[in-house]
Amino acid sequence: MSKRIAGPEIERLIQLLAKVPGLGPRSARRAALHLIRKKDQLLGPLASAMAEANEKVRVCSACGNVDTSDPCTICADARRDGATIIVVEAVGDLWALERAGAMNARYHVLGGVLSPLDGVGPDDLTIRQLVSRVAAGGVGEVILAVNATVEGQTTAHYITDQLEGLGARVTRLAHGVPVGGELDYLDDGTLAAALRSRTGM
Amino acid sequence: MSKRIAGPEIERLIQLLAKVPGLGPRSARRAALHLIRKKDQLLGPLASAMAEANEKVRVCSACGNVDTSDPCTICADARRDGATIIVVEAVGDLWALERAGAMNARYHVLGGVLSPLDGVGPDDLTIRQLVSRVAAGGVGEVILAVNATVEGQTTAHYITDQLEGLGARVTRLAHGVPVGGELDYLDDGTLAAALRSRTGM
User: Fold this and answer.
1) In terms of CA atoms, which chain A residue is nearest residue B38?
2) What structural domains and CATH numbers belong to chain B?
3) What ipTM does this complex have?
4) Identity of the residue in B1, B27, B73 whose CB atom sits nearest the CB atom of A99
């Protein structure tokens, strides 16, 4: 806005909202207006929810997840199968796997992937903590659920080496055709992997 | 999320973020994660900006705009031309016109349009306050910048009747081809209006 048309508090709210992923400068204005119109139902509650999250959120010292308690809800859940650890790059991947709801395991968040070009080495990730968790015993399987990128696969191989001799089986996610996916639109690498890993009907 | 995978504070933050226009359930999760990761740069400042806006925002008693002061920044600005009042349906329209930056006038926010089917009559809008402002004198022109919908045009005609005899010229926005618009994609009504209102080169 070229001229000042509203108080600095509203302009600041719009500027900060524009930094939220999914919102841009234009939708931030629309969002701000909607929040202001729904002051009591939305703006107030959202302000306090953010303040509360800001105050309470911490990183789980066991697995690297973010939560309002340490250990996190998942690590503290006694019904979770502690014998299986799913290793993910980031908390968003953990949330995605939980939404899929296929496993009742625990997690380990690496905090990134090995990337020499970006200066990310093993000590910048939580690989040492993972090795300690597995070495402490009771872990039967470590599932490497890293992204299917070059860096992700490099990281997976490095972790596999580090976990050798600790008695846990190390596995990775299957490659293949996405459920609901059309072959015509898939890349050659995925199609080749799906053919190699074909299973009986 | 079927199982609880994070503390109630984080789930509540996601639920509230999902109600912000432009964000849905999926992007609310991504936004929450981003906010948590950028705790100090984004989550904290946004929480306090929202709390401040929530506390200070009020409706301008003169024009119906929302701002953190009453009268609002525009009404309080002595450099604004008080002889011209632009009438809009909602605050979002006021912001849009200000972005266009074509006029240095004051505004009057109706708070909606006449809509007998939805039970919205003249007393539900700020039409009486507009008539008082014009009757108080000093207003040379009232520009009706309502939407080009049936309800908007009905409201414009009603306001024109109410302002008759008060000495102010009542005008409306021009209809025509949007700047940068292609004729091929325009509806017949707009094209006909653009032809009727053709101007010399």
Assistant:
1) A54
2) 80-172 (3.40.1360.10)
3) 0.79
4) B1
